[in-house]
Amino acid sequence: MDRREFFTSVSAPLMMGTILAMCAVPAGAYSNPRRAARAPIRHRIRRRLLVRAVRGRLEWIVPMELAVGWELQHARRVAVVRELHIVGAEGAKSELAVVALSDGTTEKFPITRQDTSDNRLNLTGSAIEPHDHDTPAIEDLSRECARESA
């Protein structure tokens, strides 16, 4: 092998890699440069809750994964979880959820974590502002998929 064949065999893959890297389209880029890419819509995680009488008190039955920022729906009421507390009451530890109701008031409710067939399903929650990255959310990619298929 002479030096021309050697340099050709070494430089050809390097040149092809460079050309492919320069031509690669970055993730999220569109073929139309005038059309701005939009961020997907983010929705709060919303789950149903049940109300049961436990030891003579009404308690909310919530999903095991409940976190601050989730929405809980019972009948037509929607409550946003603001805080979760563990308290000792009557010799046993129980859990309280501080929720903000749709009318703007906050209330404390005793909760029991239990997965049921009703509270495992994700429902469409309220939309979250694009700059809010702390609230747990589900991204709505249906708009993105519809745009790509068109």
Structure, described:
- It is built from 2 helices and 9 strands; from the N terminus they run H-E-E-E-E-E-E-E-E-E-H.
- The termini are far apart.
- Strands 1, 2, 3, 4, 5, 6, 7, 8 and 9 form a 9-stranded mixed beta sheet that branches.
- It is of the alpha+beta class and 150 residues long.
- It is 19% helix and 42% strand.
- It is elongated.
- It has a domain of 78 residues: SH3 type barrels (Roll), CATH 2.30.30.
What's a concise summary of this model?
The protein is an alpha+beta fold and 150 residues long. Helices cover 19% and strands 42% of the residues. It has a domain of 78 residues: SH3 type barrels (Roll), CATH 2.30.30.
| Mean residue pLDDT | 79
Low-confidence stretches: 143-150
Largest sheet: 9 strands, mixed
What is CATH's topology name of the domain at 41-118?
Answer: SH3 type barrels
Order of helices and strands: HEEEEEEEEEH
Attribute tags:
150 residues; alpha+beta; SH3 type barrels; nine-stranded mixed beta sheet; disordered C terminus
